[in-house]
Amino acid sequence: MAAVIAVVGSPALVAVPAIWMFCADQQARQWSIVASLAVVLGCLATVALRQRGTGHRSGADTFAELRPVPGNTPHTSGPPALPARLPARWPAQLRGAAAVFCCTTAFLGFVALAAGDAERPAPVDGIAAAGGVIQDVRVTSVRNSERHNPSRGHDFYTATSVVALPEARTGRSVPATVSTNTPEPLRPGSEVTVLYAPSKPGLGAVQGKPGPLRASLDGAPLTPGARTALLLIWLLGAGFLGGLQILHSGGFRTLTRWTKHDRAVRGRCTGDGISQLAPATDTGTGTGTEQSGRKGTSTKLDQLVITTDGGEVRFVLDDATDGYAEQLGAEPLWLCWRARQKAAQQLTPAVLVGDSGWALHGQMVLTEAERLAENNETAIPGGTGAPVDAQREARAWDPRAGWPLRVGRGAMTAAALALVLAGLLATTSLGAGRWWAAAGGVLCVLGAVAAETLSTAWRATEPNASDEKDPPSSATAR
Hints:
By secondary structure, this protein is α+β, with helices and mostly antiparallel strands.
C-alpha cells in the first residue's frame, strides 16, 4: 500500500508547482492543479479508511507485521549460514529522499503560489481578449513624477503619464493614462513599453517590461525571472536536502557482498532507545576518538542494543526504534559490519541477519566493533565461525514501509488542510491575502511533519539518554 501511494501521490504532488509555473492557459492550469490535489487528497483518504478498517498501529506493531517470514524458525545443527548476497538498502533510502523532496516541494510550492496570481488582472484580461500586443509608444505628458531610492537596488521613478496609442483601423493616436515605473525620469517624447489592444485602444494600457507583460498577456501566473528563480531554488534545494537524507541513512556505503574487511558475530536484540555519540576528534594517531575532551555537537542515535558474548553494542537506525526490542528479543541473529575505517569515521555500515531469513540495514559504532575484535569474538563471513551459503536468501526488512498503518490523524488532518489552501491559491485571486494563505499552508505542512517527529525529539532529551562515554546498556533505559 505504501508503494502504491508513493507511486501515485508523489508525482501528483510534484506536478502542482510544475503546472503552476509552466502552464499558461488559465482554465487548463486550474483544472490540472485541482485534479492533482484531488489525487493526493484521495491518497490521504485511502490511508484513513485503511486505518479505520484495521486500526491504528504503533511503530513496534508495523515492525512486527512487516517481517518477511515468521521469526523463531528452528535449526537442527547450530546457527544458520549467512547468505552470500544481502538485499540492497537503496529502496528504503530512495523512499526517504523522496519524502524529503516532496516536503521541500510543498514548502516551495506555497511560495510559488503566493508569488503569482490565479487570474489575470481585469485590465489585462480585457486587453488580452481584444487581441493585446506589446509595443513601444510615445509619452505626451508626465505628471506626479517621483524618485524612489530603495535600500537595495537602483533608483527608479514613478509617474502618471499620458501615452499615445495607435489605433489599428484608422491609424490615429488615442491618448491613454498609465502609471509608469521606469529606471529614468520620463519626459514628453520619451518612449515606454505598454500592453494594449490596437483594435480597442479605449480599453487603456498597462506599462511594464516586455518579459512580465508577455507573461501577463499569455496568462502565466509568474514572470519569467520569478519562475526561473523558484525553479532553481526548488530543484537545487530539494536535491540537496534529499542528498542529506541519504547521507543521514548511511550514505552509499552498504553491505551487499562480503569482503575480507567484513566481520560477523552472533547476538540477540535486548533493548532499544536513544543515546548520544560524541563528536570525533584527532588525537594524532590518525583515527577518530571520542575521549579527547574537545567540545562539539553530539549526534543523536536511534538504536537497537545487541547483546553478544563479548558485550553490548549499538545497532543504529535512521528511524525511531521504540518497541522494536520487544519484537526482536527472542530471535538469534547475525550482526555483521564492515571493519575498514576511514579518517574521523565513527559509524560503519552494518546489517542484522535474522535466523528466520530477514535482513535489516543500519550502522554500527566503530569503537564498539573494535572492542569485539580485540576480544576475538568476531569472525569473517565465509571463514571459520561464520559460514556462507550461496543457496540461502534473505529478504529486506524495512519497518518504515508501514507508515500508512501508523501515521497519525493529526498529521493527515494538517496535510488535508494544506491541500485545501493550495487549491484555493491556485484557483482564486486573493490579492494581499495570498501570502497569508500561503503562510497558513506552510504551517500546516510543518504541523504534519512535526506531528510524526516530535515524540522522537522529546525522547532524545530525556535524562536517561546516554552519552558515548557511558556503557551501551544505559541506553536501554527509556
